[in-house]
Amino acid sequence: MDFLKAVVTTMVLLAPRLFIYGREGVGKTSLAACAPGVMFCDLERGLGRNVCPHIPLNSYPETIAALKALVQEPHDYQTVVIDSADWLERLIWDELCKAYGVSSIEKVDGGYGKGYVHALTYWREVIDLLTKLRTERNMMVIMLAHAKVERFEDPEAPAYDRYSPRLNKHASALVCEWSDAVLFATSRMVTCTETGAFNRTRTKAQPVGKDGGERILRCIGGPSCIAKNRYDLPAEIPLDWDALAAGLFQQPNTNISQPQAQGV
Asked: Facing residues of 202 across strands?
């Protein structure tokens, strides 16, 4: 192959790959439900009052079959949502436990963390299918996940706590690297000091605004959370589909538009 003749000098515009994680009830599912032509791979039954197309899934093989159907069969869906990645991880662990005849992911292949490494093979199968949906069917991919607080050992500063996706570290690294944007959904908080009995003081956090506070997406990582994006999104935007779409599909000096489904 003449590799120099294969050099590409034009911009290749593909549908976004979004990984959105956050606390329970903050509005991740409702945000994804506003995406165009959405289809939910419903693993955790968390749609609530969001009325949109979804496929109830109960196992890893069912999830793979559903994604293959979206790749191969005619349809007009424009966005696929995995709701959620941490529930999918549990199904992957269940499948590994069945394969090795053990009761826990910690015991797979003799233990010592080998189960989490073997799980990456399953994750790569999922990601390969999601990549086909993006490249062959022009579908946007949204993965949702819950958040956890982890201790981060920063080599350039003292260790500190931060929010991260509620996944094993190997799976989290794989999904975050693959995604075009890793976004943290949260509420804007402020801290205040209270004086109680015996003049004891305590510091507590409370949301800014009414009804649980102003909900936002953090788009750039920092000491408080893992986040990134390849769309020049600002550090924070409202937790609102219109605000997110404006950043994703109306980039300066490009002709990026919201994805349109391509039937086969």
From this structure: 194
Q: Which pTM was predicted?
A: 0.86
96 contacts: CB under 8 Å, gap ≥ 6 = 105, 108, 115, 118, 119, 122
Alpha helices in 101-217 (DSSP H): 114-136, 169-178
Asked whether the beta carbons of 174 and 124 are under 8 A apart, the reply is yes
- Provide the CB-side half-sphere exposure for 31 (13 A, CA): 31
Are residues 39 and 140 in contact, defined by beta-carbon separation less than 8 angstroms?
Answer: no
- Domain edges within the chain: 15-209+217-248
* pLDDT tens, residue by residue, 133-165: 999 999 999 999 999 999 988 888 888 899 999
CATH class of 15-209+217-248: alpha beta
Q: Per the structure block, which two tokens stand in for 2?
A: 């003449």
Q: For residue range 210-264, what is the model confidence (pLDDT) as tens digits?
A: 555 699 999 999 999 999 999 999 999 999 999 999 999 875 444 445 666 555 4
CB atoms < 10 A from the CB of 70, how many?
20
